[in-house]
Amino acid sequence: xxxxxxxxxxxxxxxxxxxxxxxxxxxxxxxxxxxxxxxxxxxxxxxxxxxxxxxxxxxxxxxxxxxxxxxxxxxxxxxxxxxxxxxxxxxxxxxxxxxxxxxxxxxxxxxxxxxxxxxxxxxxxxxxxxxxxxxxxxxxxxxxxxxxxxxxxxxxxxxxxxxxxxxxxxxxxxxxxxxxxxxxxxxxxxxxxxxxxxxxxxxxxxxxxxxxxxxxxxxxxx
Length: 222
Fold this sequence. Notes:
Blueprint: H1 4-9, H2 11-45, H3 55-69, H4 73-79, H5 81-88, H6 94-118, H7 122-130, H8 135-170, H9 176-186, H10 191-219
């Protein structure tokens, strides 16, 4: 049963865990945007028939991205322990978990961006090439403006997926809502904490989805 008094007593721990979750997600989303969007663009423009076609580069990048995406997240966390220790000097806590979350998020967003760019009318790209636009001009003036609404939706989907991943990271010492749910909700059979963490995550996902949909709708030029 849900104990409201116990919930009030645990609010400091809940807020701390919520803050750690936001920290993990914020860091990993930043790296996903910084590297995932360019990777997605490269995957698209180096594909067959595009203006920077390069089958070797496209094949290598595609293989690496598919490889990372095929690894279950919990296994990825364990596999990246040496890299995490090298980068941040520790293997537990939200900062350490952000390493694995970022590496999982980058290829995820890259594929979404590539898919978004594939939806662009090829005639628009061909027209830009015909008037002598450089590759950078095409990327900046055609690809990103045409696909920005879909990319925003892709970023939203990435963030929501990272919330689930961050909860899993908590089970192996990553901190955040997942860690709180395991330590109190699971090991101590604390239904109040378990219900609270679920409600918090559901509300967070709903708010993010609505915000992402609204932003995508506002900037959609179609």
